[in-house]
Structures are given as structure tokens and as C-alpha cells.
Amino acid sequence: MTKPIYFPHTYISPATAAAIRSVFTAVAGYRPGAGRRTPDLQELAEAGFLEIVALAPDDEERLDRVLQEFERWGRMLQGGAGLLSVFSSNRPGSDPLTADGTAAQIASEIRRRAAGAPPAAQEALMRSAAFLQLAHEADRQRCEVSAELQRCARVHAELLDALAGEDAWPRPGAVAPPDGFPAPEGNSLLEQRVRAWARLFLQRPCAGPVFVTSSPEVVDLLAQKFPSLRRINRSALERTACPSAVPGSPDAGDFMTRLEMLASRPLPDAGPSDEGADDDPLVYAVPDVSPLRLFTCLAEGGEAPEAGAAATWRHTVVVEVPRRTPP
Fold first, then answer.
1. What is the mean pLDDT of the chain?
2. Does a cis peptide bond (omega within 30 degrees of 0) precede residue 8?
3. Which of 72, 120, 151, 208 is 20 to 30 A from 15, alpha carbon to alpha carbon?
4. pTM (whole model) above 0.85
């Protein structure tokens, strides 16, 4: 049995980890720089919950050099062309960080041509990995700020509670953070984030057909790119034959087995819509589009790797889990 693959973010907040753990026993997650693990992700990995998929060692060394140069440039200039231009620039030999037409830039391009520019696919992979690393750090900082804001709001509510004699703060276990607090994983530049993640996936594809996210916006984006995407009703999924399943059992292994079988067989008829609880995961499928084909399309120009285990699946399955406030 394979593991579900968390996408397109690379940082897993405590709320998202709690949501995934309520459905799956373990998850695989891509990380552009394995040597730059944060303590919270390291803890998830050591607990056996998170399998980190990283770049090949040679690519990691190149990524470290790119990030060190970017950080040096940022310290020197405190601004510049912006992260989006770094990621989206596709001109061979261009350097959007110093694309100012100066003599220094021209000399740099001449030296680059003399030394031989890296292949376009490799250059695109490095841009994507650098983008995801910076987005990872932004997500982590966003999570820390959100947690601090919630702590301050809790203290304020408890003070009002003490003054008014009323319970002014929701108890732990709420499905989503209180209104006014953004989700820890940011969805800014979402399309660019998905494209970058797809390139990372194609470089080291996991074998599984199941991808998990806590972002409804990601599902909306997939629906725009693949209009055939359809939701799978809970009743239809429960009717999927699963030899190891125990009737009425919510076992995570049984659920994952059903999802794998769903990805390899003709999809069930749509049938009447059924509504589950607010904290139930939502299951979607992209019919007749394997994970390799789906992410090759999302990478917009990425090259599909050689056929392997990841190419054996008939459909791509996406599971959306609602965020939970960790206890």
C-alpha cells in the first residue's frame, strides 16, 4: 500500500498535520531542501508520520548555492525584481535579480555562455525548487504569526470571560481557526506554486495515486485545469470492494486501500449526492488521467519521467481534508 502525497505546499502546519492524521496514518511530502528541515517537520518525520521526498543530492547542492546567492542579494539590496519574476522568467541565460541592462549584467551573461548554461529543464527545476523553498519559509512564518495572534485573542477572550462570567472562546477541537485568522498555508501565487511543485514531483515521482490537500482553492484550480474532475460520494467509495475491510470500521488502512482501488478501476456512477459531517474528507477523482500525466500538464512544459509505478494508475485521486485546531 502506498502513502498519500501532500501537495502543493511543502510546509505542514500543526492544524494540517492534525487533519491528515485524522484520515491517514502517514503521508509523503516534498521538500526542496532536505538539509533545511524545520524542527516541527523533523519531529513529524521522526514520529514516522511524514516521509520527506527531497531533491537528488547534486540538485540539493545547486539549490543551496542558489539560495545562498539569493539571500546575499536580498541582504545587499533589501528588495528588487521580486520572487515572481525569479520564478517566471524563462529567457535562456537571464538573471531576473540583476536584469538591469548594466555592464555588469552583460559581462555576467558572457561568462555564463562561455562556461555553458545548464539545460533548460534543469534551470526550470532549480527556479521551482528555490520558489518552493522561499514559499515554505513564508508559510512557516505565517503559521507562527497566526498562532501568536490566536494566543493573544484567547488571552483577551479569557479576560472578558472572567469579567463577564461567560465563555467567550471556543473550546479545542474546532474544525477551522476563528474568523479573521488566515490559514497557515498561504494560497498566494497558487498557480505558480502548483506548477513548481509539479516540476519537483516529475523529477522524483512517488508511486501513489492519492494526493491530499487542506486547501479548497487547490481543488478549484484543478477543476479549472481539468473540467472532468468529479467528486466521489462517500456511499460510492464505501461500496468499493476492499477484501481487507472490516464492515463499519473507520480504519485508515482500509480507506487508503479503497482509494487505491478507486484509482485503478472504472469510476462508480455519480449517483445521488450524500452529505457527510463537516470534518469528513472530500474525495475527488480526475478520470483517465494518471498522476504523471496530470502533473506533466500542470508543469506546463515539464518532461514526463520514464514509465514506472506511478504510471500504472488509471485515475488521479485528490482528498481534501478540513483543517483542525490541534489540541
1. 75
2. yes
3. 208
4. no
Within 25-102, residue ranges assigned H as helices are 39-46, 57-77, 83-88
* Per-residue cell: 219: 481543488
Per-residue pLDDT averaged across 32-60, rounded? 80
Measure the CA–CA gap between 54 and 52, rounded to whole angstroms: 6
CB 64 within 8 A of CB 44: no
The rounded distance, in Å, linking the Cα atoms of 128 and 147 is: 28
**In the block, residue with C-alpha cell 449517483:** 271
Which of 49-63, 187-201, 221-235 bottoms out in mean pLDDT, i.e. has the lowest? 49-63
Reduced to 3 states (helix: H, G, I; strand: E, B; else coil), residue 316 is: strand
Supply the DSSP symbol for 203. H
pLDDT confidence bin for 237, thresholds 50/70/90: confident
